[in-house]
Design goal:
Layout: E1 2-7, E2 10-12, E3 18-26, E4 31-39, E5 46-52, E6 57-59, E7 67-72, E8 75-80, E9 89-97, E10 101-104, E11 108-112
Parallel strand pairs: 2-11
Antiparallel strand pairs: 1-3, 3-8, 4-5, 4-9, 5-6, 7-8, 9-10, 9-11
Length: about 110
């Protein structure tokens, strides 16, 4: 079983920055892809960014150029710059383990407000 623990959420002003981190523990073999999803009130959960074992990344169009995902072994981070109010959401860490499927963190709140 993979356990994911997120940290780094909080309240920031528009234009500010936050860095989210997610550490995977437990049965951490064969984690192929890690990423971040977010869910705003009344909205569907959506992919923000993901990174595969080979380093290939994928970003939502709304965050491209502002957010950067990185991975160091079993820790994935999301550097969020130039934050906008529409970035406000609960952010969830995700890990895909080959042969096991998806695992999710508990979520961390990001609020961007004046």
């Amino acid at each position: 079983q993979v356990q994911l623990v997120e940290s780094g959420g909080g309240l920031v002003h528009p234009g500010g920055s936050l860095r989210l981190s997610c550490a995977a523990s437990g049965s951490i073999f064969r984690i192929y892809r890690m990423g971040w999803y977010r869910q705003a009130p009344g909205k569907q959960r959506e992919l923000v960014a993901a990174i595969a074992s080979g380093g290939n990344t994928n970003y939502a169009g709304s965050v491209k150029g502002r957010f950067t995902i990185s991975r160091d072994k079993n820790t994935v981070s999301l550097q969020m710059n130039s934050l906008k109010p529409e970035d406000t959401a609960v952010y969830y860490c995700n890990a895909y383990q080959t042969g096991r499927g998806d695992f999710w963190g508990q979520g961390t709140q990001v609020t961007v407000s004046s």
